[in-house]
Amino acid sequence: MTLVYRVVRQKYADQPLDVEGARLYGGRWSPPGMGILYTAEHPALSLVEILVHAPRVPYDQLPHYRLFTIELPEQIPGTSVQRIITAEELPPYWQEPTYERSQWVLQPWLTQPDVVALGVPSAVLPAGVNYLLHAGHPDYGRLQVVREEPLLIDLAFGKTSCEQKLFEQQPTPNYLSPDTNLFQYGLQRLKLYFFNLAL
Question: In 3D, which of 72, 67, 68, 6 has the Cα closest to residue 37?
Fold first, then answer.
């Protein structure tokens, strides 16, 4: 059983498998017109991907989110439901801030998907894997939402002296400047997420 995770804003929580946003606007791995659901291998990675795309929103002003756990279909003998592409298999520009070129890297899979789930490295945390789910693949209808829960984000600064010390040693801005390293920014936010879970 393979599980993937998707964070959805509360107002869209009734459609967790909807791909209309990606179809209209595209994403890093898909141009407009393609119905692709972006998910992650871990809830924390799914959260970081959301936070990086809301760089100027203070933590206490983030919208309400729901976390969905999605189960990939069972593999039928002789077929596959997923495969993973590593960073070494990708062109060097795959992490560019703009998507003009990266949207076409997976063109063969986008036009003729051999699997419903394609794993790609996260541009924010390359050691992590994001799973792209292709709405045009026959197995897409076999995806199962097995859990839904509120995504509670408790990242308030200065809660305790221990937290304050952490922030003083490794400050993380609430916004991104043009010179911000996305990898370091995402990594720091992920560290803060796990730190707060441990409190």
Answer: 6
Q: Per residue in 10-30, pLDDT tens?
A: 999 999 999 999 999 999 999
Q: Is 146 exposed, middle or buried (0-12, 13-18, 19+ CB in 10 A)?
A: exposed
Mean of the pLDDT values across residues 154-173? 44
Q: Residue for token digits 């993380």?
A: 172
pLDDT digits (tens, 9 = 90+) for 38-63: 999 999 899 888 888 776 667 667 77
Residue 110 has pLDDT above 90, yes or no: yes
Instruction: Name the strands in the sheet holding 36-40, side by side, starting at the edge strand that comes first in the sequence.
Output: 82-84, 117-121, 129-134, 36-40, 3-9, 65-71, 144-151
What is the Cα–Cα distance from 96 to 75, expressed in whole angstroms?
34
Closest-CA residue to 62 (of 131, 7, 130): 7
On the question of pLDDT at 165 being above 90, the answer is no
How far, CA to CA in Å, does 3 sit from each of 18, 32, 71, 74, 181? 18, 26, 5, 11, 30
